Amino acid sequence: MRLRFLLLLCLAPLEGAAPGYFVPDHRLPGIGIERDALSDETLALRTDLMIQSQTFAIMRDPQALPGAKRITSDRKLQSLFHLAAERSGMPEQLLEAIAYVESWGDPKAESPTGPRGIMQVSLATAREMGLRIVSITRYRVVKERVQVRDKRKRLVTRTVRRRIPYVVGSRDDRLNPDRVIPAAANYLANLERRFGGRDWAVFAYHCGEGCVATMQDLTRRARGIPPDEITVARMFFSCSPAWNRELYMAVQSQMQRDYSPTYWFRIERAQQLLAMYREDPGAFEDLAKQYKSDFPVGPRAPHRLTVWLKQNDLVFHSSDDIRAAEGTKLVRAFNQPAYFGYLLRLSPDTPDGAAYLSEASPSALGTLMYIAYETRRVWEAMNPNGEIFQPLEVSSLVETDDYAKHANQSEALAHTSGQVFDIAYNNLPSAEQEALRFILDDLGWEGYLGFVDDGPKNIHIGCAPSARDFFAAVFQDAADSKTIYVASEPVAGQE
Q: How many CB atoms lie within 10 A of CB 120?
C-alpha cells in the first residue's frame, strides 16, 4: 500500500518536451538523466521507494517469517541486542535488522563464501573485532594402491599409506552470540566514527572499509552533491552513465560483486519489517504470503515477476481469447519506431498471427514506451560518437499457451497474461545497451518494474501491479498524441 501511495505522488503531469519523439505527460521524478538535478524532495522520495522495494529481497525467502519470530521472540537474543546497544550506542533495532538480513537470526549460519554466525562475520573482520578463532590441524591416514617400480625396474602394485591434513575449529567466537553481537555493535560504532555516518557504517559492514573509503572519496568529488550531504543515498542516486560516470562505474562494480550499495536500504527495510512483526504478526504473515510465487520456481522467487504474476493472471490461452479482449484488456501496439523508440519484431507462426500477437495490456505498452523514452534520453546525454539510436526490438508481447511453449523460453508462459513483453538487445550499439540496462535498473530498484534475462540477449519485462495505473496513463498519453493519427507504419508481419 505504501508503494502505491508514493506512486500516486508521481502522477501529476510535468512540463517539458523533446522534439522528434514521444514525450509522455506523466513522468517519474529523478529517473534517468534527471539524476543530475536531484532536489531534496526527490531524493527523499526515491530513497523511500528504494527502501520499500527491498521488501522483495527479504520477504521472498522462506526464512523471512521464522527469522522474524526468532529475532523478536528469543529472550536471550533480545537481551544481547539490548545490552550491546547500550554499550556501543548503536540502535538495538539496527543490530536486530543486520542479524535478520544476514542469518535470519541463526547463530550457526554459514555462508559458502566464508562468513559465519548470526552476524555473518568474515575471518578477517572477526580478528579486527577482537574475536578469537582457533583451529587445529589433524591428520587422517588413508591407504592407496599405487604402481611403483621395483629394483628390476618392473611395475608392481603396492599399498601405501598417506597422511591427509584437515583443519578443525576448536573455538570460533563468530558462532557465539554472546561474543559476536557486542563485537559487531562496537565494530559498527567504530565504522560510524571513521566514516562520519551510520549509513556509511552499515555500507562498510557489508562492503568493507577499503571499499567505502573509495566510494566516499568518489562521492565527495562528484558533481551536484553538496559537501554536507555525502550520504549513501546521494552516492547511489547521483550518478548515471552520462553523469558522474566514474562514480557510476564504481557503484556498478560493487553491485556486480555483491549488491553492497543497496545494503543500507535493505537494512532500513528490515527494521521496518521487524517492527511490523512485533506490532501485528498476522499482517506480517499476510505480507509473506504475497511474496510467495504461484509457480514451481524453487525455494524462493528468483525475480519480482514470479511474485507479481499469479496463476489467474494467465488468461489468454488461445487466439480467440486474445481477439475477444482487444480494445478492453488488450490494445494494439503502435509501431512507429522513430517516434516511440521501439520496433515490433515479432515472429508469428501463422499469417494472421501478427495481428493478435501485436497486442498487450495498456500498462505493458506504457511501460515499454516509458523505457524507450528514458533510454533514448540517457543515450543522447551520453553523446556516443558514431552511434545512431536504434529503436528497441520488441520480440514478444501477448502470446497463447501453445505459442509460448513453442518459444521454448523459461518465462514464455507469463506472456499469456498480457502484462509482460520481451526486448531483444543483441543488435543494439554498446552505449545504447548500457543506457537500456541503466533505465531498467533505475525503474526496477524503485519497484516500478521487474525484469530478467530470458535466453541469450533477450530481456523479459513487466511492471509492478501497483504501477499499472501509472504506465496505463503513459499509454493514454501516447493515444492522445496527434502523431498517432498520422499514417502509421505497418505492423511487423503485416507488410
A: 24
Other CB atoms within 10 Å distance of the CB of residue 491: 17
CB 237 within 8 A of CB 38: yes
Distance CA 421, CA 412 (A): 10
Per-residue model confidence as pLDDT tens digits over 294-334 = 887 778 889 999 999 999 999 999 889 999 999 999 999 99
Of 187, 239, 240, 191, the C-alpha closest to 211 is 191
Buried b (16+ CB within 10 A) or exposed e, 369-400: bbbbbbbbbbbeebebeeeebbbbbbbbbbbb
Question: Is the Cβ–Cβ distance between 29 and 45 less than 8 Å?
Answer: yes
d(CA 68, CA 171): 28
User: Which pLDDT does position 143 carry in this prediction?
Assistant: 85
The model's pTM: 0.88
Cα dist from 242 to 22, 370, 378, 438, whole Å = 21, 19, 7, 10
* CA 487/CA 482 separation, integer angstroms: 11
> Across the 495 residues of the chain, what is the mean pLDDT of every consecutive 10-residue run?
40 48 94 91 96 97 97 97 98 98 97 94 95 82 83 82 75 95 98 98 97 97 93 97 97 96 98 98 96 84 92 91 93 94 84 80 98 97 91 94 69 90 94 97 96 90 97 96 52 38
Alpha-carbon distances, residue 124 vs 115, 119, 210, 251 (angstroms):
10, 14, 13, 24
Helix (H, G, I), strand (E, B) or coil at 424: strand
240-298 residue pLDDT tens: 999 999 999 999 999 999 999 999 999 999 999 999 999 999 999 999 999 998 887 77
Instruction: List the grid coordinates of 325.
Output: 479482449
- Give the domains, in start order, of the chain with CATH numbers: 28-129+176-274 (1.10.530), 133-174 (no CATH), 297-485 (no CATH)
Instruction: At 80, list the grid cell.
Output: 544481547
Residue 490 has what DSSP assignment? P
389/409 Cα distance (integer angstroms): 28
- How many Å apart are CA 397 and CA 115, to the nearest integer? 43
